[in-house]
């Protein structure tokens, strides 16, 4: 591998995304991407007593599913990179505690899945692993309770609010295979434009997405037309429009081939999801379901996936802090 430009890594022997799996909740199952998910739950508890336990079960079963689909036994997987939104990444660590796979618990807020892909790719291409497992999860009910208000309060949600995706996505990266390949990664920098509204995450994260997008283009010498599709993780409808406008002012027209996973996963009008989807599982499930399918079937051959995250928690909100953003990018090509 080699570093090119300011912060992009180019892989000389690009890792293959061997297979993916995703499980989602009932609201996601009612959305336009339903047919691409491996399993759709009928309720948010899935037989568990709490939402947190349900989320751990979701990521556990998603990981079991991708292992089964790949045909690679779990003892052949060298390392697991996984994370979520709950305190100290408890969904991942509790859900995967019986996996017996060396585990890195990671946190990048809603950018966690692509952060996992970045780290997993480096281990594979660098010779430290033959197979790595990358996963992320989130749950609407547990996330709302932690970051905003308990659901029992029935607070009114403003139009800028997003709906945290209930679900998980997982991918296995391999040293050999027929693609799709991760050819470049562009890890992001923390960008803070002073936004404090926890119900407007799209606006808080869009500047970080722009920074990573511009850096990727400058480092690689590529432009938007190189890709069949550019997809952000969870900017939602509002953040998506902000990014389009900001990119235009920087001389990049991304409108024709750009979309957002938070826009794709829900039907805004029929499902009343306001500005769209969010959460670690938003990018993870849309990629592991819909986008991976499009790549394998050659409907998309080159995509740039930029997962976005708001680096905040309930404590910083109570202290009146701003919401820093982060965005990590992976270039995935057939």
Give the percentage of residues in beta strands. 15-25%
Shape: globular
Cross-sheet strand order for the largest sheet: 1-2-10-15-14-11-12
Q: What does the largest sheet look like?
A: 7 strands, mixed
Describe the structure.
The protein has 11 helices and 15 strands. Strands 1-2-10-15-14-11-12 form a 7-stranded mixed beta sheet, with helices on both faces. The model has no long low-confidence stretch (mean pLDDT 94). The chain starts with a strand and ends with a strand. Helix 6 crosses helix 7 (236-249). The protein folds into 2 domains: 2-174, Stage V sporulation protein AD (Peroxisomal Thiolase, Chain A, domain 1, 3-Layer(aba) Sandwich), CATH 3.40.47.40; 181-333, 3-Layer(aba) Sandwich (Peroxisomal Thiolase, Chain A, domain 1), CATH 3.40.47.40. The chain is α/β, with parallel strands linked by helices.
List keywords for this structure.
334 residues; alpha/beta; Peroxisomal Thiolase, Chain A, domain 1; 2 domains; seven-stranded mixed beta sheet; six-stranded mixed beta sheet; 11 helices; globular
Please render the helix and strand layout as text.
Blueprint: E1 2-4, E2 8-10, E3 16-24, H1 26-29, E4 39-40, H2 51-70, E5 79-83, H3 90-95, E6 103-105, H4 112-125, E7 131-138, H5 140-147, E8 163-164, E9 167-174, E10 181-186, H6 201-220, E11 229-232, H7 236-249, E12 258-260, H8 261-264, H9 268-271, E13 277-278, H10 280-296, E14 302-310, H11 314-318, E15 325-333
Helix pairs in contact: 6-7
